[in-house]
Amino acid sequence: MSVRILGIESSCDETAAAVVADGREILSSVVASQIDIHRKYGGVVPELASREHLRRIVPVVREAMEQAKMGLADLDAIGVTQGPGLVGSLLVGITYGKTLAESLGKPLVPVNHLEGHIHAVFLEAHKSQTSPALPALCLIVSGGHTVLYQVQPKDSSRTDAGGLWSYRKIGQTRDDAAGEAYDKVSKLLGLGYPGGPILDRLAAAAGNIPAPVKFGPTKMRGNTFDFSFSGLKTAVLYHARENPEYLPEIAEREAAIARGERKFEQLLPLCGPKTLGLVREFQNAVVRDLVERTMRAAEALNVPTVLVSGGVAANRQLRATFEDRAHKAGRNAYFPSHALSTDNAAMIAAAAYPRFQNHILADISLNASASLPIA
Ligand code: KG4
Ligand code: ZN
Fold this sequence. Notes:
By secondary structure, the protein is of the alpha/beta class. The protein contains 13 helices and ten strands. The site of zinc ion has 5 residues, from α4.
């Protein structure tokens, strides 16, 4: 009989619930995105996020149970994101998870959101009957995080889905997360929120247009596996300010977005060659830094596997560059599908499985932790 865990995720701006069997097989996964609510503010507004989680959590869990064709009584445990994330948002999922666990008499498993992102890669690999070899280096790159972890089994004789892993932080951003840089650059170019998906497509559309500016690699003192993106964002801002020809276009795009015309096909005709070139150079710089540092760290640690997860892992150029570099270096790179890259609850249920198997449970005193370390 399989172990079926309901995962609940509410750390940022997606309310999500999913049922996963044995930490590997997704029986259901429901994600209610709040993007339309936060869009007009150009980022996630914490107060609005928690209010929306409150509104969505019950129907989202109900739908996940319906899709899995199960009743709550059939569950073996409930896994819930404890952190890191927005405290007000986390508390909604935690309170609901605690209430369900208490009333059903089921175990409650506290899960670290970042550990969830790492498990997302394994969930995806399982679909194609592959299993990334450990130790691995995992780059988690999203709107809230840019961090590199070395992942290995705690007990080398237990490499199955039920075994616990240990994590060592190898590098992290010292300022903005990569996704945050995408979102800020998109906003300053009048391309709306979130920035990643639209900039990804515009950069591809730029082709070989001459570069209006070039951004060199970011130099890091101290830990050279750390990242930094705020300087790049500021360089884009200064370049756009110093070249007044960008301004009329930015205003046109802002007006289009205010009218609700935010599709790629609607925005592309409003982007001149200089804008397309600028977007491509920005993306080249982000991708170069993410890939270079990660692959240098993989080499230094001599790990066979590179995992990339989080919202920015959906970026096509990032994926292609990682695959190419990893192949040349004789390593394997793995990514989740788009749906498993961005925040979801299947990854939380998957990360809960080894914890449940090893009796790492929470009681009614479980609290949210905005900066929960991964352990
Ligand atoms: O993982 P996620 O859904 O939420 C956070 O935990 O932040 O990631 C959202 C972030 C946003 O910053 C968004 O702009 C970025 O991921 N993103 C992308 C792409 N799709 C989403 N960045 C670059 N290229 C993409 N295709
Ligand atoms: Zn996330």
